[in-house]
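hiii so my PI (J.) wants the whole complex modelled not just the main chain, which honestly fair. so below is everything: two entries, each one labled with what it is. i double checked the lines twice but i was tired so who knows lol
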Amino acid sequence: MRGKITVFLGCFLALIHLYGQSRVTIEITSSLETKTLSSILITVEKDAFFEKFSNQLEKDLNNSGWLDIKSTAFKTKLNINSEMEGAFRENVRLLIVCGVKEKLEIEVYETFEKSLIFEFKTDIEKSPIDLAHTVCDEIIYRLTGKPGIAKSKILYMTRAKDIYTIMMADYDGSNATQIFSAEYIINYPRWFPSMDKVLFLSYRKTFPSLDLLDLKTRQIETFLAEPGLNACASFFRNQPMAAVVLSKSGNPDIYLVDLKGKIIRRITEKKGINASPSVSPDGQNIAFISDRDGNTRLWVVNPSGLNVKKVDIPSNYITSPCWSPDGKYLAYAVRYGTEMFIEIYDWNTGKRKLLTNGISWSDAPCWAPDSRHLIFTRQDKYQNSIWTIDIHNLKMKKIADNAWSGCWALR
Amino acid sequence: MKGGDMKLEKVICAVLSAVILSWMLSGCCPYSKKKTAEKEIQPAVEAVSPQKTAIVQREEPSVPLPVKPDIEKGKATPAEVNIAVTGGEIPVAKPEGEVKFVEPEEKLKEIFQPIYFDFDRYNIKTSEQKKLKILAEYLRNNPEISILIEGHCDERGSDEYNLVLGEKRALSARSFLIGLGIAPARLYTISYGESKPVDPGHNEEAWAKNRRAEFKIKQ
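here's the output for the full assembly
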């Protein structure tokens, strides 16, 4: 009888503990929507490896936009309660502790209610940088429910004389490497859904086709080479197909193709330009640019060619739409006056938010997997560079000079 | 006698087939009328805010007319001319195998003049139509020549959108030439967007020169 009561009480207390944990996590998650959480990072190990790891983790957590790391420390002996007390006095909300046993053990504490809100273990990878990226993304995912960006890769274009090069880099522009160069025009690299290939526009065979580069074998194969223009691919997340622009009919229109480049159907049929499709994450809508009403504007159609709607934005020149991975926003380049800006449009409320100022000219936004950051091309004095921007705090970071057409991997 | 009947039968069959075929082609087919009627009652597209109900509109796939280029004479068929002048679609051609397009010789430069466009536009301006008429006359007199129409844009505007705009400019010039009787199979198009400016300047004068369609000759 006593045993049963003990088990019951144990379960009851565990449930209360879990409830407390989840309540604090939910409260933190919702507060992250509006403000950055100040945090302290403590690593319980000090050697060259963990110093690099700790430095990179601090950068990654700060770059995530969700957290603001006030300080980092190495402590071989740790009294969690006094650390939490100290953090609380400094108005720091989170305490992130990285300990090492057989694996790297991460514990995240909330200092106001002095509770452990989650913990996890991970294998110690060979590279401290990669390990920091992994840990950062896991913390962000557990706090926000959104994928982190630290492990994500970006693609972009660069050019030296007449050599065009596709570059691949870490999310912050580090570790940039050439993945393909050509003496003919190549442009607009996009991640293929399998992530082991890159799709890009290519003039390899005189006329513009869409080519695929296999990242392992470095082999090039033709994906789509219909007569006329083959361009502007946007992949579906939930179906093996893509929306592309083809001009085979004698007019640039949007078509759906499968992942072998076979045409499934044509979805726009209006005279004039139909371009730059971007497929919504649920695959139910395709945003695109058309001048069917006389000006270059943003429209949405479903994959059957039904429900054509114009998005109500007061500009006569809108281009480069890109749907956020959470489906909440459409980002696009828009001209107001004589300048081009990056703006986002809340799909549920219709509210717009201008992200860039008019001092430089901005184009080609592409979302990060966290639906919080965008990569875009910025032109200052006619020199292209690519930048990232946080849509909440508008912090910008330059990724590369002499570069354009950035594309963020969605995982 | 048997041979005579056979011949008569063949003649009757041929006449009947011709009558049926011409009746169908002349648009008396009830199916084609129905198609036209369906297209006419399409509702207009309306601008909507996200939470308003949208008017449902299907982008009715048009049935492209069969295009049969008269390559031997190098002339567009009357049907093709009609489609071109009414703004319809004529499928684009792609040359077989490896091909090369070259700049026209110096003596032909007067005939192969670039045409220019307004910002973010692809309509052929009245001032440029004369150049295309001169080119069309040359092509009519030289039916063995095929050309490449290159569409270009200035550096302003969106890079990827400019690629499509360049294609539309090339297609507009092609359509105009088909309307003047040049076979579509002799007219290839390509867009370079803003990647090949003729003037590297960053002012209106340079931009005006870069918004163009150029013409190359197929070797």
